[in-house]
Amino acid sequence: MAAQGRGSGAAVVLAAAAALVLCVLLQEARVAESAVFTVGDRGGWSFSSNSWTNGKRFKAGDVLVFKYDSSAHNVAAVNAAGYKGCSAPRGAKVYSSGNDRVTLARGTNYFICSIPGHCQSGMKIAVNAA
């Protein structure tokens, strides 16, 4: 039976610790790559937000910040049918703080204001995240 050197166990532990640190650093780098966008820019989430995405590039993991008067509006994350029909389906995530942060998933992300008439008046956006 071959004898193991005293340092071999310590080397394995050191290598495992280095791998763990590397994984943490890579995850932090991915988070640092994410951009934060304020929907509507200085105007915030409003009736003129529907064209706000024009000319912008989004990636999965980017964060949208919806700023609005919470006594008058909300933000509902909806599917394509909810976006097209301006209705929040049962189970849709509805935000109402007035300062909501939403992380984009890969693909098209749809958001509307579910207060009656608001979506129809332009409070809706579709954001495609690469």
TrEMBL record:
In this protein, which residues make up the domain named Phytocyanin?
35-130
Q: Which InterPro entries match?
A: BlueCu_1_BS, Cupredoxin, Phytocyanin-like, Phytocyanin_dom, Plantacyanin
Q: Which UniProt keywords apply?
A: Copper, Disulfide bond, Metal-binding, Signal
User: Which GO molecular-function terms appear in the entry?
Assistant: electron transfer activity; metal ion binding
Signal sequence annotation: 1-34
Q: Name one GO cellular component term.
A: plasma membrane
Name by which UniProt lists this protein = Plantacyanin
Q: Which organism is it from?
A: Panicum hallii var. hallii
